[in-house]
TrEMBL record:
One of its GO terms (molecular function) is ATP hydrolysis activity. Residues 23-312 form the ABC transmembrane type-1 domain. PANTHER family: ATP-BINDING CASSETTE SUB-FAMILY B MEMBER 10, MITOCHONDRIAL (PTHR43394:SF1), ATP-DEPENDENT PERMEASE MDL1, MITOCHONDRIAL (PTHR43394). This is ABC transporter ATP-binding protein/permease. Its main location: membrane. It is found in: Cell membrane. Keywords: ATP-binding, Membrane, Nucleotide-binding, Transmembrane, Transmembrane helix. GO terms for cellular component: plasma membrane. Residues 344-573 form the ABC transporter domain. The lineage of its organism: Bacteria, Bacillati, Bacillota, Clostridia, Lachnospirales. SMART domains: AAA.
Length: 581
């Protein structure tokens, strides 16, 4: 039987997945709330019994049995309350964890470009605060369905049984408190959304401070940054206060509105007791009615409060919903065949970033399996952009195909299985050297450390390959981080490898050694190697010389002859290299 797909962008789907927990909540909730009715009933009976005892119409034994019944009812109510609370909490925790998992999976598969556009601070707020608010709204809703819905219905029924006219009259007010709460919806949502936005901005400012702390210190901008940060902090506090005011100031108002029916009860209830009202009541009936109404009013104000919590959760849900769309599970690659790309064809590619400026202009070239293509050119001519185009983060014009299969038409999993990319940022995570390279693969890490000439340095580290590299590789030198990232790329070798300036932090001898190893390792791959340094370009199969977004593609020797700028750059570096060695 086909397993139904989890609709992670539907709130109802989270309730459905937790049906077992919800059944337990329903049972304990019903017992608890129906049991609550016993309270006012016993209280009325006990008052009546007391009056009878004082008048000599009843005995202490009758009172004692009422008291015992009362205690037993309270015990049952409290136990079921505990059970219900326990499972409601579990429900909220499960939903929270599941939502965070969905959101995390969505972040992992999102393009870096779109994450940057969204802003890191906002993404963090969504991943933590918004999910918490959604789960909290769902928890409150689940609790109040029983604590409020069932209890309200039961209390209302009891009041109607005692005196339906007085019940209807006094129950006019709770709906007014709901309507008031509903009217506050826009305000709660507006202030809630503003608060979330400020929270995202503050997270971004905090990240900025942490990441650029040295720059700010070295350039003496600390005071300015402090002031800018304080401004963010003040804006955040103001938005938090505004959002909180509506959440905390309104519940007492709802309660007062709900309680207004008490006036009718005092007025008409006493007539019932005196025998001049719609019904004839004993003191016990009056006490029960009054107690029931007070509980109903308190519950009504909770219902209004619940509306606020749900509105708040709606704001968060609307913010995270685009990130919660169900993702296709990456298909297991069952083919034993090693993936290859025999021919990479780039035809008439034009590219512009979303700001509209054209960066790549009619680029065409072809690369065959086993070839290493060097890409170079003047500063900011579009070299890195050419490398990034293969990631398909932004749309390109023209065609890029691997064995005649268009890159943009590939499924995400297929494309990531075809293109390997190493950018300027090594993107190391806070784990060991070994885990940063293997990332779950079962291979010999030493092979890759040797390939990038990092084996001896790692052997000298306190825990060898188990040494923790710190957040972003903070405990490594620039060159070590760069080589570690290259080792990872080689360990997870894809048919097409794009390496953007992988040797920029290395000395010439190490660069040469690593390049020799690379050539051995990538015999079945196509490598596009972007670099400013041209020492190794004579060893490459083709060179792409870029200028103002255009590309001239040829061998090193032909380019030396035909492109004076390329020749000058190469000779200049050779001369300099010769003097240094
Ligand atoms: N995300 C982006 N959005 C808009 N424009 C961008 C973006 N990234 C780069 N550019 C622009 O694209 C042009 C080419 O940048 P790119 O990084 O590709 O050049 P490069 O040749 O690799 O530069 P360098 O030699 O400095 O490494 C630059 O003018 C740059 O401002």
């Amino acid at each position: 039987m086909k397993k139904e797909r989890f609709q992670s962008d539907r709130v109802l789907a989270y309730f459905r997945l937790e049906w077992k927990v919800l059944v337990l909540i329903t049972l304990s909730g019903l017992i608890y709330n129906l049991g609550l009715l016993a309270g006012p009933w016993f209280e009325g009976k006990m008052t009546g019994c007391l009056v009878d005892i004082l008048n000599g119409n009843s005995e202490t034994a009758a009172m004692l049995s009422l008291v015992l019944g009362y205690v037993a009812a309270i015990a049952i109510v409290q136990v079921s309350r505990y059970v219900k609370r326990f499972y409601v909490r579990r429900f909220a925790n499960n939903v929270n964890r599941r939502m965070k998992q969905v959101l995390y999976r969505s972040l992992v598969t999102k393009s870096r470009a779109s994450l940057k556009e969204e802003g890191e601070g906002d993404v963090m707020t969504k991943a933590i605060l918004d999910v918490d608010d959604c789960a909290e709204g769902m928890r409150k809703f689940t609790t109040e369905i029983f604590d409020t819905g069932v209890a309200l219905a039961a209390y209302a029924l009891m009041l109607l049984c005692y005196d339906w006219r007085l019940a209807l009259l006094s129950m006019l007010f709770p709906p007014i408190s709901y309507i008031t709460a509903e009217k506050m919806k826009k305000m709660i949502q507006r202030t809630g959304a503003a608060y979330k936005k400020q929270s995202g901005l503050l997270s971004a400012a905090t990240l900025d401070r942490a990441q650029n702390a040295i720059t700010y210190r070295v350039f003496g901008c600390e005071k300015e940054r402090q002031e800018a940060y304080e401004a963010d902090l003040t804006a955040y506090e103001k938005s938090a206060i505004k959002a909180n005011i509506w959440n905390t100031a309104m519940p007492p108002v709802y309660r007062v509105i709900s309680m207004a029916g008490l006036l009718f009860i005092l007025c008409f209830g006493q007539k019932n007791v005196l025998g001049t009202g719609w019904k004839s009541w004993s003191i016990a009936a009056f006490t029960t009615f009054l107690a029931c109404f007070v509980k109903l009013s308190v519950k009504s104000s909770s219902a209004a409060k619940l509306f606020n919590a749900v509105h708040k959760a709606q704001v968060s849900w609307n913010r995270i919903k685009p990130l919660m769309a169900p993702k296709e599970e990456p298909e297991e690659d069952r083919s034993q065949e090693k993936k290859v790309c025999r021919e990479l064809k780039v035809e008439h590619v034009n590219f512009a970033y979303p700001d509209g400026k054209k960066i790549l202009d009619d680029i065409s070239f072809t690369a065959k399996k086993g070839e290493i293509i060097g890409i170079t050119g003047s500063v900011a001519c579009g070299k890195s952009t050419l490398g990034k185009v293969f990631l398909c983060e932004y749309p390109y014009e023209g065609s890029i195909s691997c064995d005649e299969k268009e890159l943009r038409a590939m499924r995400d999993t297929e494309r990531t299985g075809t293109i390997g990319y190493l950018g300027h940022d090594p993107e190391l995570f806070n784990d060991s050297v070994k885990n940063n390279i293997l990332m779950g693969e079962n291979k010999n890490v030493d092979d890759f450390l040797k390939a990038v000439c990092l084996d001896q340095e790692v052997a000298g580290m306190e825990d060898g390959t188990e040494t923790l590299v710190g957040n972003g590789g903070v405990r490594l030198s620039g060159g070590q981080g760069q080589r570690l990232a290259l080792a990872r790329t080689l360990c997870h070798k894809k048919p097409v490898l794009i390496l953007d300036d992988p040797f920029s932090a290395l000395d010439k001898t190490t660069e040469r050694q690593i390049f020799a190893n690379l050539k051995e390792l990538v015999r079945d791959n196509i490598v596009l190697l972007i670099s400013h340094r041209l020492y190794l370009f004579p060893e490459m199969d083709q060179i792409i010389w870029m200028e103002n977004g255009k590309a001239k593609v040829d061998t090193h020797e032909n380019l030396l002859r035909e492109v004076p700028e390329y020749r000058e750059l190469f000779e200049e570096q050779e001369e300099k290299g010769g003097r240094e060695s």
